[in-house]
Amino acid sequence: MTATVTTDRLTVTTDRLTRVPGLLYGGDWNPEQWPEQVWAEDVKLMAEAGVNLVTVGVFSWARLQPDADSWDFGWLDRLLDLCHRHGVAVDLATATASPPAWLVRAHPDLLPVTADGVRLEFGSRQHYCPSSPAYREAAVRLTRALAERYRHHPALALWHIHNEYGDHVQECFCPASAVDFRRWLRERHGGIEELNRSWGTAFWSQRYTSFEQIEPPRTAPGPVNPTQLLDWRRFCSDALLALHRAEKAVLDEVSPGVPVTTNFMSMLKALDYWEWSRHEDLVSDDAYPDPADPRAHVNAAMNYDLMRSLKGGRPWLLMEQAPSAVSWRPVNVPKRPGLYRLWSLQALARGADGVLHFQWRASVAGAEKFHSAMLPHRGTAARGWQETVRFGAELRRLGEIAGSRLRGRAAVLLDWDSWWALELDDHPSARMRWPELLRPWYAALHERGVTVDFVPPTAGLDGYPLVLAPNLYLLDTATADRLTAYVRDGGRLVCGPFSGIADRHDHIHPGGHPGPLRELLGIVVDEHWPIPDGTTTAVRLDGAAPDSPRSDGTEPHAERWSEWIETEGAETLARYASGTLAGLPAVTRNRLGAGTAWYLSCHLGADTGRVLDLPLAEAGVGAELPDLPADVEVTRRHAADGRQYLFLLNHGGVERRVPLDTPGTDLLTGAATGDAVTLAPLGAAVLRLPAAEERP
Ligand code: GLA
User: How many Å lie between the centroid of ligand 1 and the Cα of residue 85?
Assistant: First the structure.
């Protein structure tokens, strides 16, 4: 069902975020930190900046509910009325992320407890145990009160549940959590014997004879049972999701038709966002790339691709970004002139239909008083304010891109279960961390101008000529069968090292790694061969003879990880060229049915692209635009009417000339292009390209 909500100035639908005026622009507004006279200035300035959506009430619980039996909605009534009068739509928060002091003192056991048994104090935010009945009951009550009061308010465009689930507190080890964990385990495993089998409790005399004997994995003398830890990760994601679903159920019941979101935190280990996004009407994300990191935009692109992919390519919303510096890094570097605009456009380039910020007006008190805002402390004379106004105007020129979509040319498999299991302790190497394995693969694709979608292991892969799996440590046979069928039917799969190792209980697949991928990849792993920190192993790409393994220094180099593998039908495309494994296969290709499956037995870091070029070429997967200069990011959004929007973003410090295959119109300047576009340092162009049938 597509729900539509109209305010004076925009229509928000669950299917398409905006229709009029196009893209969403605004930020978190914390008016309770200010006297009401300031609000009047706020809405006036919002109009000047083109702000059309504000997030209100995120941390207002203590103000809305001064004690258990009284409510104070008057100020919020006046605020929403003010917003409506000034044509600003409201993303209304359920305000449940920061329980008030009176609630905490009445129910001290709702405060979270660490693995070491320390109960965390009141005085910050997100201080709640996900499994606390008292917290849940109070949160649901507040959500219901807000929903009943504001469901018909004309300013209401979107519900914003809670704030950044998983921020600060991702798990709690208190007795209430133990009870909830046991309930969850019973549901998952059925009986205690099933649990014993799943957890492999024959090891180290860990056998349980009743669920009551099980506790959360608190700090123990030595390594804790890995399957217990894996189930704990699953449970913690589910426990927070249960809270979210409880609030969502109230909103759906009381305020049907108003879309609901909660702000995700990019690629976050703690929460299985595939599962979470099923419960969102639209996906929204908070993103804080570090201006001090010259490659931060690559990571940002990766996160934005994930956000777009979570609901199959539907537009998403950048719910928070910093207009300039944040306040929570050890050193908080501001965004140099042009960077804010470029990074904002990047979110749109990767499928967002709006750009919002933390926050509208800079706070003068509290832990975030040095955090940048759309309206800085200095007021309208500040550089930051000028950028806010300028970008608001530019966003209005881009309105027509709302609702258009990107299509990935290849798919990247991402599985939270496998991520959690991969990073458990006591593995051959502690250096095999999912984000660090994924990043060089993604960076190689980004550098080559290849747009990718992320897909869950359960996804249908048919539309993709190429599927990349940088790591699939945990892999059940059903997923392996799906991958095998995809390749047999003509697909191309590239699989990274340390894959196909364990089943969903984190038990090793017997009979040699990579377990259920062995036939598909045509190889067997004899032994894992992690590479010590600070050293590398050369890899010769040409498949040189095993007896000439000398390295001349120009080969790709593996770091962190290598494997002693033997082929079982696969051909060898690259061999190790130094170290103990010299001469043994490093990269292989196996033909199966109509397709091919590649295996990278090592982690190639910055050299990953030199190997990925081979399957990319074989699959015919290329850049959105040929002859892309260095540092230029390119993406293409497709509108339903066949028009395309080409985003060209220059992340580098020198001017770049980008040759075009089709002339278009730059929506930012209104100018028609010739056969090329010149981008200033940190410059950008958003080109409208006519539909194919309209092209000369
Ligand atoms: C997060 C939170 C905000 C704020 C910002 C600061 O995104 O959701 O409330 O703390 O960080 O960067």
Answer: 28
- Residue 464: closest CA among 449, 454, 473: 454
Q: Which atom of ligand 1 is nearest the CA belonging to 328? A: 12
Residues lining ligand 1, judged by CB closer than 6 Å? 163-164, 286, 288, 320, 322, 326, 358, 368, 371
Distances, alpha carbon 395 to alpha carbons 26, 259, 528, 686, in Å: 11, 23, 51, 11
Residue 171's pLDDT is: 98
Please answer whether residues 174 and 113 qualify as being in contact, where contact means their C-beta atoms are separated by less than 8 angstroms. yes
* Among 171, 247, 280, 320, the one annotated catalytic: 320
**Which helix or strand (DSSP H or E) is residue 434 part of?**
helix 434-447
How many residues are recorded in the chain? 696
pLDDT confidence band for 21 (50 / 70 / 90): low
Asked if pLDDT for residue 406 goes beyond 70, the answer is yes
Angle, helices 133-150 vs 74-85, to 10°: value is 50
Q: Where are the alpha helices (DSSP H) in 99-225?
A: 101-106, 133-150, 175-189, 192-199
Alpha helix (H) residue ranges in 591-692:
608-619
What DSSP element (H or E) covers 305? Answer: helix 296-310
DSSP strand pairing (263-264 vs 24-29): unpaired
Q: What is the pLDDT of residue 694?
A: 79
Concerning whether 320 is annotated as a catalytic residue, the answer is yes
Answering whether pTM is above 0.85, one says yes
HEC sequence for 320-385: ECCCCCCCCCCCCCCCCCCHHHHHHHHHHHCCEEEEEECCCECCCCCCCCCCCCCECCCHHHCHHH
Q: How many CA atoms lie within 13 A of 286 on its CB side?
A: 21
Whether the ω angle into residue 217 lies within 30 degrees of 0, i.e. cis, is no
Q: Report residue 128: phi and psi, to 5°.
A: -150, 150
Please write down the HEC assignment for all residues of 224-283.
CCHHHHHHHHHHHHHHHHHHHHHHHHHHHHHCCCCCEECEECCCCCCCCHHHHHCCCCCC
Counting residues of the chain whose pLDDT is more than 70, the rounded percentage is 95
Residue nearest to atom 11 of ligand 1 (CA): 358
Determine the residue type at 687: L
Number of alpha carbons in the 13 Å side-chain half-sphere of residue 560: 21
What is the per-residue pLDDT for 324? 98
pLDDT number for residue 692: 78
Return the beta strands (E) in 46-181 as ranges.
Answer: 53-56, 89-93, 156-160
Is it the case that residue 10 has pLDDT exceeding 60? Answer: no
**Options 164, 247, 280, 555, the catalytic residue:** 164
SS3 content of the chain, % helix, strand, coil (to 5): 35, 20, 45
Residue range 5-28: average pLDDT? 58
Cα Rg for the chain, rounded, in angstroms? 26
List of residues 6+ apart from 216 with CB closer than 8 A: 115, 171, 173, 177, 178, 181, 232
Q: Are 5 and 32 in contact (CB under 8 A)?
A: no
Element (H, E) at 484: helix 477-488
Q: Residue 164 catalytic?
A: yes
CB-CB neighbours of 311 under 10 Å: 17
Buried b (16+ CB within 10 A) or exposed e, 16-31: bbbeebbbbbbbbbbb
Give the atom of ligand 1 at the shortest distance from the alpha carbon of 59.
9
Residue 1 has pLDDT above 60, yes or no: no
* 616-630 exposure pattern, b = at least 16 Cβ within 10 A, e = fewer: beebebebbbeebbe
Pairing relationship of beta strands 665-666 and 684-689 according to DSSP bridges: antiparallel
